[in-house]
Amino acid sequence: MLSNSLIELDRAHLVHPVSSFRGHEKLGVRILKSAKGATVTDMTGHQLIDGFAGLWCVNAGYGHDSIVEAAAKQMRELPYATAYFDIGSEPAIRLASELADRAPGDLNHVYFTLGGSDAVDSTIRFIRYYWHAKGQPQRDQFISIEQGYHGSTTAGSGLTALPAFHAGFGVPYDWQHKIPSHYAYRNPVGSDPAAIIASSLQILKDKIEAIGPERVAAFYAEPIQGSGGVLVPPPGWIKAMRELCRSYGILFVADEVITGFGRTGPLFACADEDIVPDFITTAKGLTSGYVPMGAVFMADHVYDTIADFAGDAAIGHGYTYSAHPVSAAVGLEVLKLYEGGLLENGRRAGARLMAGLEGLRSHPLVGDVRGRGMLAAIELVTDKDKKTPLPAAAAPARKVFDRAWENGLIVRAFANGVLGYAPPLCCTDSDIDTIVERTLKTLDQTLEDPAVRAAMA
Ligand SMILES: Cc1ncc(COP(=O)(O)O)c(C=O)c1O
Question: TM spans, by residue (predicted)?
Fold first, then answer.
């Protein structure tokens, strides 16, 4: 009764992100009630392993009392402090300092946001300001990568390169350019890492030359493209792209909103890749999704250029909830948990997950298995030689997701038949094995789908 009335209230009033409004009205909402570790329970009592950590964000897992205590303590003591007017709060200052200590190279300055989209949006503003400060305001062209996701703000959605975020919204703007993804499984140059790197370098170079090197402000890359289908570049790819940008004096932004905070192993995926970008954007795992927060990391030279140019004038970029003390208190506690064993557990569990998913390679529907750490995907095809995607009639985003859900597993089911995994770092061996077993069951059921059968005949 309660559950039914909630479904009706949701239908009538709650607008869901990135949803078909009419489709959602028809389907109705699935309401989650509680969670512990890597397991969530819905209103009907159905228990599921959360193989996607909410929205690749609950890296620490659910139900950590110490995080709840940290938030409650901060709420009692000081629930809010602005960071405007040269005011601050202890947790925000401490978190900025702890993060700067751990960030690659000289990314020593942290601007806190509410999430990933406004972190990316903030970089666009800081970068425009930076080039203005450098006396090169004509550097106003931005390059990002097809299949990339950089959030959903008005400007950031144009750096994003997924059609649903553009159609009908009037983006991308003419200053937002794209180059093709490294997408190793479907790269026209084949899957050889050196060939992919050489090709991406040439394409980026050509793009920069076509725009005019003196016009290009910045290049954006995710260390692993998440929302585009968990596309993992070959080792050395991001370093090569970073160096090319450096040679042109173009700022390099690593968008680590998904890859940060243990998702691929270390706190920052850039550490694995041995690069120091000019900016890193983070969110999600920063507070493990318990409360909203994002962070922009800025290199010394960027900060100093902006600071020296502005002098006594205020740099007009700010949010009421920037450096929120409760979010910062949660961030500090989450960082403690990561370094107190969760990163290590995530590395071990990630190796088990990758091995388990590799074991599914021989399944008739599995065309590709890819990932790093606790970020992985399998790509389903109906013909392995031709790499034929699942037919639209198989409606993977809906039907494969539903089958997995019924089997007690949450995965990200992309419309093109990619299944994405980003489980909490706290997963036990048994959690990981259950994810793999339930995936296999879901694949076997998908194999029986008449639309899939017809495509394979
Ligand atoms: C790489 C990347 N950047 C930015 C964002 C936007 O973050 P948010 O949804 O917190 O606004 C996301 C979200 O998934 C992301 O994956």
Answer: none
C-alpha 220/C-alpha 178 separation (Å) is 10
Q: How far apart are CA 259 and CA 265, in angstroms?
A: 9
Burial class (CB in 10 A: 0-12, 13-18, 19+), 293: buried
| Dist. CA 141 → ligand 1 center (Å) | 21
Residue whose pair of structure tokens reads 């992309």 in the numeric block: 414
No. of helices (H) and no. of strands (E), the chain: 16, 16
Pocket of ligand 1 (CB under 6 A): 115-117, 120, 149-151, 222, 226-227, 255, 257-258, 283
Report pLDDT for 1: 44
Give 113's strand partners: 294
Q: Which atom of ligand 1 is nearest to the CA of 259?
A: 1
Q: Ligand 1, residues 112, 122, 149: which to mutate, most atoms within 8 A of Cβ?
A: 149
Q: What's the pLDDT band for 4 if we cut at 50, 70, 90?
A: confident
Mean pLDDT of 382-410: 97
pTM: 0.98
Interatomic CA distance for residues 366 and 370, integer angstroms = 11
Residue of 154, 257, 259, 284 to mutate, ligand 1, most atoms within 8 A of C-beta: 257
pLDDT digits (tens, 9 = 90+) for 117-153: 999 999 999 999 999 999 999 999 999 999 999 999 9
- The strand pairing partners of 216, in sequence order, are 141
How far is the CA of 244 from the CAs of 270, 393, 422, in angstroms?
Answer: 16, 42, 31
> Left if phi > 0, otherwise alpha if psi is -120 to 50, otherwise beta: which for 422?
beta
Cα 129 to middle of ligand 1, angstroms:
23
